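Need the bound structure for FE2/S2 (inorganic) cluster, inputs here:
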Amino acid sequence: MKQLVDKLHKTRNLSPEEYKELIDNRNPEVAEYLFEKARAVRVKNYGHDVYIRGLIEFTNYCRNDCYYCGIRRSNCCADRYRLTKEQILECCETGYNLGFRTFVLQGGEDRYFTDEKMVDIIRSIKANYPDCAITLSIGEKSYDSYKAFFDAGADRYLLRHETANAEHYGRLHPESLSLTNRKQCLHNLKAIGYQVGCGFMVGSPYQTTDCLVEDLMFIRELNPHMVGIGPFIPHRQTPFADKKAGTLELTLFLLGIIRLMLPEVLLPATTALGTIHPKGRELGILAGANVVMPNLSPTSVRKKYMLYDNKICTGDEAAECMNCMKRRMESIGYHVTVSRGDHKSIQ
Ligand code: 5AD
Ligand code: FES
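Answer from helper R.:
Posting the output first, comments after.
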């Protein structure tokens, strides 16, 4: 197995069969070997810097009904909220003063936020904080909408592909959603000029090693600037309430693989990873990740943006989260930096 890690390190690429062999035959020793290589590549490109993104969860209304997601339309128990433009700008102000230079506007697919409203919000943030990057994470939109947001000043867009296997996609989503459209959105975003992030959940129901291999092949083809992966965690009020969560171990292994595939990729150690293990985010960084995304949402709404059960940091003020994160990163010899943290190809 170590030869496969060496090959991946050298050539950045394995065949589908080789990825499958590596994943299926992984063990703690191979994993540690992989993480050493992934860390070396990460340190070569980004040193010991950890980029921070201020996450603003501005609406939990969603028109979609993804089976895994706690804010799906059919979850009538979800306590719905929307932040006003003023509240969003307050989050940015708090965040800016704490050292954030990227704001991630994340929300469900909420028709209330029309293109006009989004453009206005993006323009206002950019006017107040011209030195900051704006990342959007608001789902599937038309080419024209994506273009309008980009022209208003949005820099990056996160749209996890969720799974690159069409049949698997169909088991995670209602029929109204398709992998084809998802992929089209990602290609459109790239063509417009965004720094683009795709990604998937590790250990989502019905996922097989073959699905993961397809995810890796899709990532290779898309060549995104960012890849967001985290463990699937069941939410009590969804059809997947009784499904098993993804594991820390497999998520870390995939983070290591992705770092070797895309040496310069922006790779977050996600909140979901921090939720399934108390040291999940630190371990994610040590497996090759280089981004963390502390929450800037007002504490009054934190508990309402529950994509999965037991989400961490829901009671903490932005400043507390930031300090906690700084300490956590220092404890493993890494440092949170004040910078936009663009992909190497744009710096
Ligand atoms: N567990 C883990 N991640 C989830 N997401 C949604 N629901 C869950 C869950 N139950 C992820 C999806 C989505 C991102 C915003 O959150 O991958 O793209
Ligand atoms: Fe939020 Fe630790 S990062 S409390």
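Comments: The pocket of FE2/S2 (inorganic) cluster (ligand 2) is lined by residues 294, 313, 316, 320-321, 324-325 (CB under 6 Å). The chain has one domain: 2-337.
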